[in-house]
Write a structure and sequence with these properties.
This protein is mainly alpha-helical. The protein is 73% helix and 0% strand.
């Protein structure tokens, strides 16, 4: 299944809850609905971005060693996170997050 179908169920439940509380049984404004959809999607993608970054770093570990970006192989997920945090700062775990959010925005 596509990433959109996997994420759509929690997104729609968040969207419905926010819409219901915000609009208090009023007609749903399409612009507000789109904004709430974007905000809920952004939150979900941002929460998962560190895992995606660590996964890609571990998958490309050999290339990173060849380039000299890292000196030693990661011993696992936590070692990778520790290395990123110490060498690049905690914010580095969200590298590429904006691209991930914008990729799903038109949907």
């Amino acid at each position: 299944s596509s990433p959109e179908s996997v994420e759509s169920t929690p997104l729609h439940s968040i969207l419905f809850t926010l819409s219901f509380h915000y609009l208090n049984n009023a007609t749903i404004n399409p612009l507000m609905e789109e904004l709430l959809h974007f905000l809920s999607l952004s939150a979900l993608i941002s929460a998962g971005n560190p895992l995606e970054l660590v996964k890609s770093r571990i998958q490309t570990m050999n290339e990173l060693i060849d380039k000299g970006t890292i000196q030693n192989r990661y011993s696992g997920i936590f070692d990778c996170v520790k290395h990123i945090k110490l060498n690049e700062g905690i914010r580095a775990l969200w590298k590429g997050n904006a691209v991930g959010v914008l990729r799903f925005f038109p949907n």
